[in-house]
Design goal:
The structure is a homodimer.
Chain A: E1 2-6, E2 11-12, H1 24-27, E3 31-39, E4 42-43, H2 46-59, H3 67-80, E5 86-94, E6 106-113, H4 116-124, E7 126-132, H5 139-142, H6 156-167, E8 172-176, E9 189-194, E10 197-200, H7 211-222, E11 226-229, H8 234-238, E12 242-247, E13 251-258, E14 261-262, H9 267-279
Parallel strand pairs in A: 7-8, 7-13, 10-11
Antiparallel strand pairs in A: 1-2, 1-6, 3-4, 3-5, 5-6, 9-10, 9-12, 12-13, 13-14
Chain lengths: ~280, ~280
Amino acid sequence: MTVLAFLDGTLADPGAAHLRVDDLGLMRGDGVFETILVTGGTARELRPHLDRLARSAAMLDLPEPDDEAWQRATRLVIDNWRGSPEFAIKLVYTRGVEGDPSATPTAFALGLEISERVVRARADGVAAVTLDRGIDPGLGERAPWLLLGAKSLSYAVNMAAGREAARRGADDVVFTATDGSVLEGPTSTVIIARERTLYTPPATIGILPGTTQAAVFRGAERAGWTTKIEPLTLDDLHGADGVFLASSVRKLTRVHTLDGKTLPDSTPLHRELAEAYETVYA
Amino acid sequence: MTVLAFLDGTLADPGAAHLRVDDLGLMRGDGVFETILVTGGTARELRPHLDRLARSAAMLDLPEPDDEAWQRATRLVIDNWRGSPEFAIKLVYTRGVEGDPSATPTAFALGLEISERVVRARADGVAAVTLDRGIDPGLGERAPWLLLGAKSLSYAVNMAAGREAARRGADDVVFTATDGSVLEGPTSTVIIARERTLYTPPATIGILPGTTQAAVFRGAERAGWTTKIEPLTLDDLHGADGVFLASSVRKLTRVHTLDGKTLPDSTPLHRELAEAYETVYA
């Protein structure tokens, strides 16, 4: 099941061709996106997702997204969805056609089934490997043209990291900075639990601020947890009671193995935190 | 004038829609490309361009490009071109549609007019600024998953760098590594001239091997120049007799100003080297 809605409020056949070959989203990976989880007819964290879309667009000097139009397109996909009760909506916003001075951005919302692989990872956890991202934690603020922390369509490296993980027999990746600090996953935020406190690295080190991570923190705080945003090292991960990857579609996924080393069993902890996260939407 | 040929040998209307929204080239910047200059009906450096396309594809774990089919598509664009005698052909090769196990790559060749801006820069030269790329020169070999030196469709950063240059009142960019060494332009190779020797940095520092740079070197060698591939510093650029940016469409473009500082006038040198480059195709 797939549902496609353009920002002008029209539904279209997702199996048909809709884009010119010279769309800058294709030619240059020049655009931004968001992936939103829908459960029970509600788009989770829609406000933070739309805020982040606007933030990414500003970092790429794209026209400010039409917030209401994006809300309508999201609603249109939800209203026309006939697939699984839990699904994902991708919002895609590109610079439009190359060399056209009057070019309007290409903008659509696409409802998609969540892959079997992600559903399985939610239940079983994942083996992750750390991969050098080659940047230092000060770079994002020093060099905004590198678009660190923008959710751009230029995700070839994020995809290549996933293939490198598979080559190493793992399911997912934790990127590290040149000083050894923990950054993020290619499509997720890193969270660790230690003595009833949750930790995640600050977005200022050049990573994406996590919408799901923020929701997990809200739920955990309600359940009596302390939450802290501070730099993490690999030692912190190996010494934690639980290591998790958070994203819209994977929710909170447990990392059971890191770089081939089995981590302490965080199954009960994961269950508790996953429940705390769900209370945010109860 | 624009001419579009798909890899299966069909011509198509470049103004029409041809791509699904879930093409991974769009969704993830997950594909590779080449830009080739055509003059007098000949695609310059076609062999090196196709070799580099194959190299980039291998770095992204894409299926090996069908070399003959790409040659045919390129020829088809040239044969149907009715625009300016000098034009560009982009070859684009993506992973195809997301989630489709039998997905075939999306592959097309697009003939395009060369922009006024590029033609003007060839004649007048450009002001460039240096921008921190945030990587060290050993990273490319250490971390192949970062795809340094692959010509991927994920060019959002390259485009953002160009906008940063414009904000600083300049036309183009020279990226530098964390140790101060010179990398490349966002869409060009850096060449300097000093005492009848041409220098360019080695591709091993995580940059794209330049097809036009190689052709310029061949032409210059025939004209009695020495050529060297070795690391360059910003001091080398400021102390050079001439600094140039090479790419298929800009050919050899002279940098007249670097970070606001006027460089020594390299107009005669540029004329000599541009002529030497043209002899390669005479």
